[in-house]
Amino acid sequence: MKEINIGILGLGTVGTGIAKILLENESLITSRLGAKLILKRAADLDLQRDRGITFKDGVLTTDPFEIVDDPDIEIILEMIGGETIAYDLILKSIDNGKHVVTANKALLASQGNLLFKAAAAKGVTIAFEPSVAGCMPIIKTLRETLVANHIQSICGILNGTCNYILSKITDEGVSFESALAGAQAEGFAEADPTLDIEGFDTAHKLAILSSIAFGMEINLKDIYVEGITKITPMDIDFADQYGYKIKLLAITKFAGESVEARVHPTMIPLSNPLSNVNGSLNAVTISGDAVGDMMLYGHGAGMMPTASAAISDIVDISRALLNKSVSRVPMLSFQTENIRNIPIHPIDEISSIYYFRFSALDQPGVLSKISGILGDHDISIKSVHQTEQKLNGAVPIFMLTHQAREAQVKKALAKIASLEVIADEPLPIRIEG
Fold first, then answer.
1. What pTM did the predictor assign?
2. Residue 409 in contact with residue 403, Cβ under 8 Å?
3. What is the dihedral of CA 255, 256, 257, 261, to 10 degrees?
């Protein structure tokens, strides 16, 4: 029986999960693939840590380049992360004619255009299902299942840390800081959670999805990114009263000659299925011209869910090797010559319905001043709510608008923020659906 040798770079959470599945589910995978996947080498800086796995003698090494340069290894799994040595190792693997599986969304979002071109020129593949949404087959769905569809939009919850925090605030009314501490205690958030809570992790994933969906070069720098740190229980309570949930959404829409691509807290109606995705779970809705609307739902991170996605990529590459058809499915769905530089719509040019929260001093005429400035900027108010509860001595005022243009909203809020009667920076939240 044919044997295909695998090398793993990095035995952290996901790398260990991959090794565990390869070793424990060997007979199952063999029966489906028709070949044996052999874990020949695995590299990590710490070879003494107990990972709950027994490796054969000679498998472990501290030098990842030993694995990349091994002529018998056909598939490399890059699970180190980061954008330095991981980049060098992937390029070296490609140069050595090896196929690569990676979960490194940050690297793909920043250097993917170069890496995919290098792989195409060498006739090898980079597979990256585990880089977006864990066990959910979002990459395979876009590249294969929906190949005959013009993708119109993708909207998703792509960060389990943020979803856990927002769910905790919603369910228990705790502060953002308390919810974050809970996420860290449960292992859903890193000690330094900046990439997650400021929306950057979600933006990395959105850059990859937009490329596959629309046939565009990966463009991370032009994606608008806003995190969840300013969301309070008051905002979530108001949203609930008016039939909304607040989620950190990744949104991309095709607009002909440009694409919308943005990450920010968003109010969505309770009728939207994404509003019921809670805890650390992820979900993505896709709209295509042939299929209409569809949704994928599942664990977006974690050892075994992400490792499962990586194994599916290994098996896909292995099947292609067995049938000598490695280039059957283009890495970014479109043929290389058909991938275009499609611009991303500036955030100032979008239109949306908005929620505003103002903290104002309890004085006569405040509401008329705020309303006047909004009116001067062509922003029409749909409803106003003022609570008796004070926040740091100021009275919260909540508003919902009709459709408004982002550029006008920014100008209006900047002018309102300069008023002496405004005690804190106004908070806008966009409303979708």
1. 0.94
2. no
3. 30
| Residue range of the domain that includes 95 | 3-137+303-338
Beta strand extents in 255-310 (DSSP E only) = 259-269, 281-288, 292-299
Same domain, 322 and 284: no
The 10s digit of each residue's pLDDT in 16-60 is: 999 999 999 999 999 999 999 999 999 999 888 888 888 898 999
Alpha-carbon distance of 166 to 279, in angstroms, equals: 8
Give yes or no for a contact between 396 and 238, defined as CB atoms under 8 angstroms apart: no
Which of the residues 105, 205, 245, 247 is marked catalytic? 205
In a domain, 142, yes or no: no
pLDDT value at residue 283: 97
205 is catalytic: yes
Lookup: tokens for 423: 């005690």
Residue 106 has pLDDT above 70, yes or no: yes
Q: What separation in angstroms does the CA of 111 have from each of 105, 108, 117, 143, 204? A: 10, 5, 10, 20, 11
Terminal alpha carbon distance of the chain: 53
- Identify whether residues 78 and 17 lie together within a single domain: yes
In a domain, 217, yes or no: yes
User: Which residues are 265's β-sheet partners?
Assistant: 248
